[in-house]
Amino acid sequence: MAKFTRGFTGRGKAGRDPRLPPGQYDTGRQWPVLSAEVTPKIATSEWTFTIEGHVEQPVTWTWDEMQALPPSTYSGDIHCVTTWSKLGMEFTGVSVDTLLTDARPRADATHVLAFCSTGYTTNLPLADVTDGKAWVAFTADGQPLSRDHGGPARLLVPHLYFWKSAKWVAGIRVLVHDEPGFWERNGYHDRGDPWLEQRYQGD
Amino acid sequence: MPARWQTATVVATRDETERAKTLRLALPEPSGHRAGQHYVLRLTAADGYTASRSYSVASAPDGSTEFELTVERLDDGEVSEFLHDVVEIGDELEVRGPIGGYFVWDATTPALLIGGGSGVVPLMAMLRLARATGHAELAHLVVSVRSPRDLYYADELPGSDATVVYTREAPPGSARPAGRLRATDLAPLLRDDATVYVCGSASFADAVGDLVTDLEVDPARVRVERFGPSA
I want to staple B199 with a disulfide (CB 3.0 to 4.6 A). Which of A160, B119, B121, B205 is the partner? Predict the structure, then answer.
């Protein structure tokens, strides 16, 4: 149990939105921007998305090919490890399931590494990007994803802390082992479940 | 890595501006931080309610048990208002860290440090490290603030290794009129072998990112830390 802080009452537990995981606060209408790189300018005419690695059929989609796939929507909350959460958002894109159906991960595949045009990477168990849990998203709350939020496309894995939802995503490498990504090499948790407060290695 | 919560004692406080306050904290053991890293600070109410925020370390690594965090007061900031209004010397605060392995600098390679407003905090740790270790020639800090009243660490800035750019109101007699950071402010300070560290609001970071990219700095040499609202 944490020790009490003299004089601190804070906003208290009463009235706390049950959608907020422990240690998170509601950022309201704001959507903070956090990233470690210079925001890139990516034209949709040059954009591609690739699934490679331990798959039966590596596949690359252009922007137009991706837009022609069946759309899928996520309505719900997102949680950043820096302690803000944004509730009741709506993203549209393509389900990662749809993409993996074409690429066909091999039976012994266990993890994926998402990679981005900036060099950013993040690792995820394969099970965290399948069965309707992950998207390549193009719009947020009805608007095309802005550059600073990862536009034209970002990975969306909303049940995990949001650094897993890689901005400017360029593809997914399917692996037979876990391989730490950018923040994970820098001390952050390999899985990042906000409900378990898996913020840093060792949590 | 920083799995452990520790209890730190507030040993000094100092106002940097009307809205920024530095807390000097003492740990039971040396902090062991690197310039650019941050700590998570956690407040716990009597009913068990907690609120945590991340704050950059402003002091240079010096092997001691003490380190400094500078906290910007945010309107309706649950944690920052508490740290400004309630915390006093002798209070104990829970901290976890130091955290961060990317936006760090160890004074072994050249660096250009560009900060906007409160974004100067982790960069000040780097500049102080350069000065303290006799490597002032390796680092140059550029800090952008609205007016002289908004400048943190004013008794240490500017200098031969630090430039202050005023965006709204420059001090009387300034050679440079007030205005946003421009390519001409940065171009003389760029060197091919330097890593560029940019810290500030998202809009500041994006503006500086575009400026240095237009000056043909390789984006791979630019490390960015965007300060979100940490109320």
Answer: B119
